[in-house]
UniProtKB/TrEMBL annotation:
The keyword Transmembrane helix applies. It is found in: Membrane. InterPro entries: NCS1, Pur-cyt_permease, Uracil/uridine/allantoin_perm. GO terms for cellular component: plasma membrane. GO terms for molecular function: nucleobase transmembrane transporter activity. This is NCS1 family nucleobase:cation symporter-1. Keywords: Membrane, Transmembrane, Transmembrane helix. It is a multi-pass membrane protein. Gene3D superfamilies: Hydantoin permease. It holds the Pfam family Transp_cyt_pur. The chain crosses the membrane at residues 31-48, 60-81, 110-127, 147-173, 185-204, 224-244, 265-287, 307-334, 346-365, 371-397, 418-441, 447-466.
Length: 486
């Protein structure tokens, strides 16, 4: 890649090819690529279960739909605000975050974000492995008898399914971002076919839409609002890592218009449609089976038809591979490359990430909707302050201007004090306290329902105030900073 003049001098501990600005010829993702990437990410087992489980929390269909719509409108606003820096400068999250925390301090949010993404990989991969087990159970006689043998807290049949699905992930990421782009182009739309089939079944079994939408809510007015906000926070928590590392994708965009249109169609558009499918289908299971079944693999098994089970499970496998590679491998891969730029590239780091994910052992705690929303809320609360600080830094503090050369050297504008921006560390601490104050003080427990909102808001405000109080920083941003890598 031909390097810009301002990057002629760079520190090898802060730079390699995966962290470098994307060249013009590689900025070839158009709006369709971003639409299909998001389709691939939102059409997955965990997203289906998360939307469907709103009914198991006591909501009716209308309440669940409203919850999903509100969460996705908020999400796309946050995504757009944090996407533009990647599209403009062509650099990933681990590089952009240096402008906020300093080249050393940046490792803190990078490690937090990598930890969360790898955790999410484990959750998604385990969910998808259940579909692998369902297919093998149909194709191999006596497959489920292996469950009597135990390994790492699960039956041997589940352990083999987990191992096979992990290997599939390794295959997809083995050729870098171009394979991710190609895979996402067709994986997302395929899952819509499965979703439509389940919706048709729900309508038929319910004899029309009427019964689906007439199931009463089990929540009173006050109870509903408590569940509503913690559910919105949980749904946002599903994509909390993507809010931070969306520049990892938009850095390849042909233009700001491409990434904004593609994401606008792909995130709120297809996410809401897919959630509607999940909610309608789950509502149909209440009528058909007397209880909400929000696990799509369990639902497919209820039909007792091996062909339906195999085809449906394969679609779910593709869906889960799609979201896991895009959302939960790309981000920690770039994070690990940033930590060890001399030793790792994207593919090696991605493979390391999926190995680390095994240690989260999701098979020990996964099957509980209450636990899932609690975890999602914690994830959103932990990453909210960083998202607020990123948005504040680019749009308010620096007004869209970064010094490209300083991203890759230790004595540039982002050196701060020996590589640490104390203002950013204080702001992060304040934001985290705001996010989790409901857990720290029982009298304020209701505030935990709004953990992501508190985190992003307090992180945004405190960062702007602290940075504007720094006279040295004010002098720096008034300098004639290069705004292009051309």
């Amino acid at each position: 890649m031909k390097e810009p003049n301002e990057l002629a001098v760079k520190d090898p501990s802060l730079y390699n090819e995966d962290l470098a600005p994307v060249s013009k010829e590689k900025k070839n993702w158009n709006w369709l690529n971003y639409t299909t990437v998001w389709m691939g990410m939102v059409h997955n087992i965990v997203a289906y279960e998360t939307a469907g489980s709103l009914l198991s929390l006591g909501m009716n269909v209308w309440q669940a739909l409203a919850t999903v719509i509100v969460a996705n409108v908020i999400l796309i606003a946050a995504m757009w605000l944090n996407s533009s820096s990647g599209a403009k400068y062509g650099v990933p999250f681990p590089v952009l975050i240096r402008a906020i925390f300093g080249y050393k301090g940046a490792q803190i949010p990078i490690i937090i974000r990598a930890f969360v993404a790898i955790f999410w990989f484990a959750v998604q991969a385990y969910a998808g492995s259940k579909a692998v087990g369902a297919v093998l159970g149909v194709l191999i006689p006596g497959w489920h008898s292996l469950a009597s043998f135990h390994l790492l807290g699960m039956g041997l049949d589940d352990a083999i399914a987990v191992a096979l699905f992990w290997i599939l992930h390794a295959y997809v990421i083995s050729h870098g971002m171009e394979r991710v782009k190609f895979f996402e182009l067709w994986a997302g739309p395929l899952v819509i076919v499965l979703g439509l089939g389940l919706v048709i079944w729900a309508i038929v079994v319910s004899k029309g839409f009427g019964p689906l939408f007439s199931e009463p809510s089990k929540l009173s007015g006050g109870e509903f609002w408590g569940v509503f906000w913690i559910s919105v926070t949980g749904l946002i928590g599903t994509w909390a890592t993507l809010i931070l590392n969306i520049p990892d994708f938009t850095r390849f965009s042909r233009s700001q218009k491409d990434q904004m249109i593609g994401q606008g169609i792909g995130l709120p558009g297809t996410a809401i449609i897919f959630s509607i499918m999940s909610i309608i289908t789950t509502s149909g299971t209440i009528i058909a089976f007397g209880k909400p079944i929000w696990d799509p693999v369990e639902l497919l098994q209820q039909f007792g038809n091996p062909i339906i089970l195999i085809l449906g499970a394969i679609a779910l496998l593709i869906a889960t591979l799609s979201v896991n590679v895009a959302a939960n491998v790309v981000s920690p891969a770039y994070d690990l490359v940033n930590l060890f730029p001399k030793k790792l590239n994207f593919v090696k780091a991605g493979l390391i990430s999926i190995v680390i994910a095994l240690f989260f052992a999701p098979w020990l705690w996964y099957n509980n909707s209450g636990i899932i929303f609690s975890i999602l809320g914690a994830i959103g609360g932990a990453l909210g302050p960083v998202a607020g600080m990123m948005i504040a830094d680019y749009h308010i503090v620096r007004r869209g201007k970064y010094d490209m050369a300083s991203f890759y050297k230790k004595d540039g504008e982002y050196e701060y004090k020996n590589g640490w921006n104390v203002n950013a560390l204080i702001s992060l601490a304040i934001g985290l306290i705001a996010s989790f104050i409901g857990l720290i003080f029982p009298a304020l427990k209701e505030l935990y329902n709004y953990s992501w909102f508190l985190g992003i808001g307090v992180g945004f405000i405190s960062y702007v105030m602290l940075m504007r109080s720094s006279s040295k920083h004010q002098e720096n941003i008034l300098e004639n900073i290069p705004t292009s890598i051309d």
